[in-house]
Amino acid sequence: MVSSDSRSDEASGARRIVRVLDSLSLLLDGSTRGQMGNASKQQIFKQWKLEVSHVLPRGADEHALGDEHDIDLDSQFPTPVLLVPPLMVRPYVYDLRPNHSFVRHLRDRGFRTYVLDFGVPDANDETLTLDHYVFTFMPAAIDAVRRHANTDRVSIVGYCMGGIFGLLYTAAYQEQAHTANLVTIGAPINFEKMGIISWAARFGQGFVDKLMDRLGNVPSIGAELGFKVMSGPRAITKWVDLANNLYDEEYVRGFDAVNTWVNDLLPYPREAFKQMVKDVVGQNKLLRRELELGGRRIDLGAIDVPLLALAGRADNIATLGSTRAVLATVGSEDKTFVEVPGGHVGVVAGSSAPREVWQRTSDWLGPRSLA
User: Fold this and answer.
1) 251-260 in b/e burial notation, b at 16+ Cβ within 10 A?
2) Where on the phi/psi map is residue 202: left (φ > 0), alpha (ψ -120 to 50), or beta?
3) How far is it, in rounded angstroms, from Cα 41 to Cα 103?
4) How far apart are CA 132 and CA 272, in angstroms?
């Protein structure tokens, strides 16, 4: 006679097998990928390849990410938020899937939320420099948000190079900048503290011009390979973790979204890459306040707006040493540096990001976005 406990164990095992098969099917059919970047948006600006989109209010058939975020849309904060992606990264990093989305979190907390898209560089964009991003693209995007939101100032939230663009724009324009608040996520400032990246840039300064003139834009596969190398053992152990969690559909969806993102990077414009290697990383001019863009010297000490800098404890690209330097570099009186769980990818898109990064960001922005 079969005991009830045995029948229960068999049923539990069968359900586990079904869940594993469902997860494998999900990975193979790519259903998660169709949800990436699909928050309802309205394009408010397009020029060159630059696009700015407004994240629309939550629809009647769309659930909030949590009850605590279910706000009265009539009580929105006056100061809008512009999310700026890094170079080489598609902006859907902020909207990986419906229930794991930074843009929806900000929207549901009452912020008028906008997303900047620099577009996909091609051979026609090889001559783009950091100057273009700081003095042409960033001002155009911010002006578009200001017009649409009918406000004078905008809070800038940027991941990695997106955060650096926010710092550079604000420092370059100083009192003419329309920056209300700055939030940087995994954004390095002291490039001497970036380990192998620092060494590689110093080593490559002498021949990067000739190499890039022959190569053109840095191909996306180069960035993807770099991510894998810098991830170290994690590039392998993540597959072990996936195998151990195949019964957990939510884990599998998260894995599929992040894995798709890091294998879907963009080319890096040739001339901007040269500047990064020689000036920003190799000679650390951003930290030393010696970086020249647009014919002027960029001094981060001129920044006086509120700043929140978030950095991953396990980030071996934008290390804690490289990111913490922002505190001593910017001139703001209201500035906060917070260590959070995660590596360079997990800090913005990992399982702890909603609590440790998104929630901290919206809580910090709230009282600073009232006027």
Assistant:
1) bbbbbbbbbb
2) alpha
3) 10
4) 9
174 lies in some domain: yes
Q: How sure is the predictor about 264, in pLDDT bands with cuts at 50, 70 and 90?
A: confident
Phi, psi of 115 (to 5 degrees): -125, 130
In a domain, 1, yes or no: no
**Residue 227: which pLDDT band, with cuts at 50, 70 and 90?**
low
CATH code of residue 176: 3.40.50.1820
Residue 279 β-bridge partners: none
Q: What is the pLDDT of residues 234-261, one digit of tens each?
A: 666 766 666 666 666 666 776 766 777 7
For residues 172 and 293, is the Cβ–Cβ distance under 8 A? yes
Residue 195 CA to its chain's centroid (Å): 21
The H-assigned helical ranges of the chain are: 4-29, 102-108, 130-132, 138-149, 161-173, 196-204, 208-215, 220-231, 234-244, 249-262, 270-275, 285-288, 320-324, 326-329, 346-349, 353, 359-365
Q: Do residues 187 and 167 make contact, with C-beta atoms less than 8 angstroms apart?
A: yes
Query: Which one, of 84, 40, 92, 89, lies nearest residue 257 by Cα?
Result: 92
Pairwise CA distance, residues 355 & 3, whole Å: 44
Q: Is residue 71 part of a domain?
A: no
For residue 15, is it within any domain? no
Backbone angles phi, psi at 112, to 5 degrees: -70, 115
The number of folded domains in the chain is 1
- What do you get for the CA distance between the two ends of the chain, in Å? 73
Domain containing 356 equals: 81-96+121-368
